[in-house]
Write a structure and sequence with these properties.
By secondary structure, the chain is of the alpha+beta class. The protein has two helices and four strands; from the N terminus they run H-E-E-E-E-H.
Length: 166
Amino acid sequence: MIAALIGVVIFTGLFGGLSLGFYFVKQQRDDLRATEIMEQQIEGIRLCAWGGGSGTNIIASQLFNSSIVPTSFTAYEVSGSGYNSNTVYTGTITIKTNGVGTNALAIYNSSGTNFTAATPPYISQLALVTVTVSWNDYHNKNTNTYTRSMSTLVAQNGMQTYIYSH
């Protein structure tokens, strides 16, 4: 009788540990997929033209066109990956430039002080792109919401200028 009780406790602990291990692997896969989605969005934005030019070489702005760079998006798990999580990722893209108000790009030094008094001359050629991704996870009848965010500076004369001119 005691041996059966010990066996039940051991098997319950074993299967509980396996279940928790598989859940941790699922969490890591979902987090990695969110990172891939953010990276994919940022790399696509790096290829967008700022616009400008003169004469017959005028390039339309893609970076600030919401039909090309949407302010929100939805992504899913990659099909054919052998892993079907049914996780839906929703995201937002925020682009801050040297404008005024909530879209103003602020430059800080290493101590966290804002450089508004001494704005660098190249500030008009930079845009701060922030991609935020959120998704829900269901475990033990609980809903957990996760959010990841990634930011980068995109330069007006960056990679997209090289690709479009060569």
